[in-house]
Amino acid sequence: MSNPVIELRNITKRFPGVLALDDVSVTILPGEVHALLGENGAGKSTLMNVLAGELQPDSGVILYKGEEQRIPSPFVAQRLGISVVHQELALCNNLTIAENISLPASANNPGWMPISRRRFEQKARAVMEQLGLMATNPRETVGRLSIAQQQLVEIARAISQKCEVLILDEPNSALTIEETEHLFSVLRKLRADGVAIIYVSHRLEEVVRIADRITVMRDGRHVDTSANDNTTVESLITKMVGRSIDYFRRQDDIQPTTNRALEVQSLTCEKHVTDVSFHVNQGEIVGVAGLPDSGKDELVDCIFGLRAYTGALRIKGRDASIHAPSAAIENGMALIPADRRGAGAFLVMSVQENTVVSSLGRVSSLGILHGSSVQKVAQQYVNEFDTRISSLHQKMRTLSGGNQQKVILGRGLATDPAILLLHEPTRGIDVGAKAEIYRILHNLAAQGKAILIVSSELPELMGHCDRILVMYQGQISGEFTHQTANEQAILSCAMGQ
Question: Which CATH number fits domain 6-241: 3.30.160.100, 3.40.50.740, 3.10.50.30, 3.40.50.300?
Answer without folding.
Answer: 3.40.50.300
